[in-house]
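Onboarding guide, step 5: your first structure request.
Type a short instruction followed by the sequence, for example:

Predict the 3D structure of this protein.
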Amino acid sequence: MLAFTVFDTKKLMAYLLKGDVFDHFTFRQGEIYSFASFTINGKKEESFLTEDDTEPFCLWADIKPFVFETVKGKRLPKSMKLVFSLPKEKIERYPNAKAVFLNLLFREGTLLCTTSITEETFSLEQKATKQWDEDILGFFKKHEIPIQIET
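The system replies with structure tokens like these:
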């Protein structure tokens, strides 16, 4: 697991809510505390699934407009928690991983990110976790989002 703080919250929020940088992630769940409290479940409704649907969760690109409408305005949300993961077909590079997660927690003007992995079977080996952490750090570096790793 990795924990880090994003320095340029404004840049990350622009990427998140207006750009397409995070669109390839699936959206698991979210909580937004603004003028009201909002909870969003990213799991697709089974009655809407087609035979071609292999991913049980919505892509961030599909959920993003609803989140944007909820947080836009002159006042920042009091807090916001968003949980992302990679689509099933993209986790093959992480041995024994059932799911890989990126969690974003915005509170009191600070944006904290954490990573985690759910494994298929218990293992003491941390190869997948280390690879996911390296990939996320590379992702933030590639998009020039400055961070500080928490110790």
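Each response can be followed by summary notes, for example: Residues 98 and 120 are 5 Å apart (CA to CA).
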